[in-house]
Automatic annotation (TrEMBL), chains A, B:
<keyword id="KW-0378">Hydrolase</keyword>
<dbReference type="Pfam" id="PF05652">
    <property type="entry name" value="DcpS"/>
</dbReference>
<feature type="binding site">
    <location>
        <begin position="185"/>
        <end position="196"/>
    </location>
    <ligand>
        <name>substrate</name>
    </ligand>
</feature>
<comment type="similarity">
    <text>Belongs to the HIT family.</text>
</comment>
<feature type="binding site">
    <location>
        <position position="92"/>
    </location>
    <ligand>
        <name>substrate</name>
    </ligand>
</feature>
<dbReference type="InterPro" id="IPR008594">
    <property type="entry name" value="DcpS/DCS2"/>
</dbReference>
<dbReference type="GO" id="GO:0000290">
    <property type="term" value="P:deadenylation-dependent decapping of nuclear-transcribed mRNA"/>
</dbReference>
<dbReference type="GO" id="GO:0005634">
    <property type="term" value="C:nucleus"/>
</dbReference>
<keyword id="KW-0539">Nucleus</keyword>
<feature type="binding site">
    <location>
        <position position="102"/>
    </location>
    <ligand>
        <name>substrate</name>
    </ligand>
</feature>
<dbReference type="InterPro" id="IPR011145">
    <property type="entry name" value="Scavenger_mRNA_decap_enz_N"/>
</dbReference>
<feature type="binding site">
    <location>
        <position position="122"/>
    </location>
    <ligand>
        <name>substrate</name>
    </ligand>
</feature>
<dbReference type="Pfam" id="PF11969">
    <property type="entry name" value="DcpS_C"/>
</dbReference>
<feature type="binding site">
    <location>
        <position position="124"/>
    </location>
    <ligand>
        <name>substrate</name>
    </ligand>
</feature>
<protein>
    <recommendedName>
        <fullName>m7GpppX diphosphatase</fullName>
        <ecNumber>3.6.1.59</ecNumber>
    </recommendedName>
</protein>
<dbReference type="GO" id="GO:0000932">
    <property type="term" value="C:P-body"/>
</dbReference>
<dbReference type="GO" id="GO:0000340">
    <property type="term" value="F:RNA 7-methylguanosine cap binding"/>
</dbReference>
Length: 256, 256
């Protein structure tokens, strides 16, 4: 369950005598209240996963975290086998790419098999609050697992997503490029290349410096050095009960 | 008004048939719902200021932000003159380095004039909650404004801060290196080179991917290419009422 961002129209409706206030503190001009708006005005959001695997449950449980420094060698030796054996299914991505689900939610599509992608709202965005704008671009190619796979051969794809993604967002929602953050996650939550587009005002837990890589930085780094992301040490935060963390421990690549 | 964090006991009470669910999306094992719990379980917090001055109103009014892409040339032409003319005084930093203030708060010092630094708790940390651990290392050298100035000549300084900073934190607070994020800000809030050390669990608004640069990444990028941070486009978020934003506009380096 998640509490959702305020909607300006609904806030207006809350500012009536139907909202109960219980004073908790008063000092000079300042006072605080517990506030109980009408139930219909104070909706939340629930995401249900059913049936849920153990991995799903672990993903949403509270955990200890560790910082991992993954070298290019660590990736080949530890992470890649993990991704091939343990990662969650991408079937839901293929359903979207095949237009079997969510076809009505597509904001933009470039159908080119090499540099094309589908842009659609992230499940976390209600599509109403523009300050919380959040979309994802899913590439049509199915052979790129993550940032680690990218080199100069992918520059046309990356530039295409940056340019057409931002211009589709401008056209559809009126939000200009200088208000939109575009980035990739490493580690990503699923291993099919995708790019996040989020409003600069969105307070997004996935925009931490040890997870988010700006798309413009990715392009510039690869232009400077084609193998940048194959050789660079990539730093990420990992949960103690994550199979990937256990794999790093087993290989002696990190210490407990 | 603010939505409050979930309380585990109240979440239990929400998980009953009294909570209304309205399905909004379904794909494979995943589905989402609008959720309306009983009003009494779904309280918020309100802060009232009455009467409010114009300053109060300005403080809580929405600010516009923009993403700026600063090239190495932009830095020399726009940012450097701004830093030299407009940035806040570093006198408070020099007071610390001279032991004129906060000497009793120093956690560790390396007195070497070239690669030395003073490590002390950030003002935002209460020094009690270890999950909120937050320190800063201030370098003794006074000629390095920010990340932009760094090249291979600074590698001994940077490696010294990383190694001795993390080991001082381990020794003093018992927090190991794999739970501590070390990073630089760009733009920084003051232009005297410093490094942030924060606990991995700290939900820190200064750790966004368009502000925080991991110290290990900085070292590796400079090892790969000495002029990396002098030439790289650096992306940052800026407030519309910030002098730096106005300087970028005046120079025609960004469009409104």
């Amino acid at each position: 369950m998640e509490k959702t961002a305020f909607d300006a129209n609904i806030v207006q409706e809350m500012l009536t005598e139907k909202t109960e206030l219980v004073e908790t503190l008063k000092n000079d001009v300042y006072s605080t209240y517990k506030t109980f708006p009408d139930k219909t005005l104070n909706g939340m959001k629930t995401t249900l996963i059913y049936p849920a695997t153990k991995q799903h449950i672990a993903k949403y449980s509270e955990q200890e975290f560790h910082i991992v420094q993954e070298s290019g060698e660590d990736y080949k030796k530890v992470t890649l086998p993990y991704v091939k054996n343990k990662a969650l299914s991408n079937q839901w991505v293929y359903n979207i790419l095949n237009k079997e689900t969510e076809a009505d939610r597509i904001v933009f599509e470039d159908t080119c098999p090499d540099s094309g992608f589908i842009l659609l709202p992230d499940m976390k965005w209600d599509r109403k609050d523009m300050d919380a704008l959040y979309l994802q671009a899913l590439v049509h190619r199915r052979d790129i697992l993550s940032l680690r796979d990218l080199d100069q051969s992918h520059l046309p794809l990356l530039k295409n997503i940056l340019e057409k993604g931002l211009s589709a967002i401008k056209e559809k929602y009126g939000i200009p490029a200088n208000k939109v953050r575009s980035y990739l996650h490493y580690q990503p939550s699923y291993y099919h290349l995708h790019v996040h587009f989020a409003h600069i005002k969105l307070d997004n837990p996935g925009f931490e410096a040890d997870r988010a890589h700006l798309l413009t930085d990715v392009i510039e780094n690869i232009e400077m050095k084609s193998l940048y992301y194959k050789e660079k040490t990539l730093v990420f935060k990992v949960r103690e009960d994550d199979h990937l963390y256990k794999a790093f421990l087993e290989h002696g690549c990190i210490q407990k």
